[in-house]
Structure formats: C-alpha cells, structure tokens
Amino acid sequence: MRRAGLGEGNYGNYGYANSGYSACEEENDRLTESLRHKVTAIKSLSIEIGHEVKTQNKLLAEMDSQFDSTTGFLGRTMEKLKILSRGSQSKLMCYMMLFSLFVFFVIYWIIKLR
C-alpha cells in the first residue's frame, strides 16, 4: 500500500522537494557561523575590557596611596601651622600658610598633568 506523496522522488510529508529543505539548512548553517563569529568577537572584546578594568583599578589604587601620603603630609604641615599660630608671630604664620597653599597647588598641578 503506497501513500500519496511518499513516492520515489525523496519528497517529505507534504510533497516538498529536499532541495528547498537543504537551502534552508545551508542558510541556517551560514547564519549560525555568522553568529559564532559575532559571539567570538564579543567574547574577546569583553576579555580586553576586563584587562583594562584591572589595569585601571591598579592605577586608582596607586593614586589612592599617593593621595593618602599627601594628606598625611598636609595634615602634619597644618599641625605645625597651628603650633605657630599660637605664638605672636602672625606674619610668619601668614607666610607659612601661603607657602603651604603654594606647595599644595604645585602638587595638584603636577598630579593633574599626568
């Protein structure tokens, strides 16, 4: 007993030829390969971003330690200025404060240029 549509021509259940099916398969393979290349590109980009983030975090940690040391230096300078301000040498204290501000701006400018 032969069914209609399942004859000798390699036809599917609805009478379509395999050539249309293989064209769809080829297109799917092509699209899959294109997607694979895009995923690979995105993966390599994300890895590069990860390396850049690690580098930037290291740089930020170094800057943080430099700012901490600068803060300590400025704190000690301010303590010395407070000791000087308790005396009667107000003119000397004014010069010291101006010198401290000058040094602070020079350090800030040097860090800003990096």
TrEMBL record:
Lineage: Eukaryota, Metazoa, Chordata, Craniata, Vertebrata
Localization: Endomembrane system; Endoplasmic reticulum membrane; Golgi apparatus, cis-Golgi network membrane
Entry-linked PANTHER family: GOLGI SNARE BET1-RELATED
Keywords carried by this UniProt record: Coiled coil, Endoplasmic reticulum, ER-Golgi transport, Golgi apparatus, Membrane, Phosphoprotein, Protein transport, Transmembrane, Transmembrane helix, Transport
TM ranges: 92-111
BP GO terms, sorted: protein transport; vesicle-mediated transport
Name of the protein: BET1 homolog
Ranges for domain T-SNARE coiled-coil homology: 22-84
Similarity field: Belongs to the BET1 family.
Naturally occurring in which organism (per UniProt): Myotis myotis
Organism superkingdom: Eukaryota
UniProt key word Ribosomal protein: no
Quaternary structure annotation from Swiss-Prot or TrEMBL: Interacts with SNARE complex members GOSR2, SEC22B and STX5. Interacts with LMAN1/ERGIC53. Interacts with STX17.
GO CC field: endoplasmic reticulum membrane; Golgi apparatus
Function noted in UniProt: Required for vesicular transport from the ER to the Golgi complex. Functions as a SNARE involved in the docking process of ER-derived vesicles with the cis-Golgi membrane.
Record membrane topology: Single-pass type IV membrane protein; Single-pass membrane protein
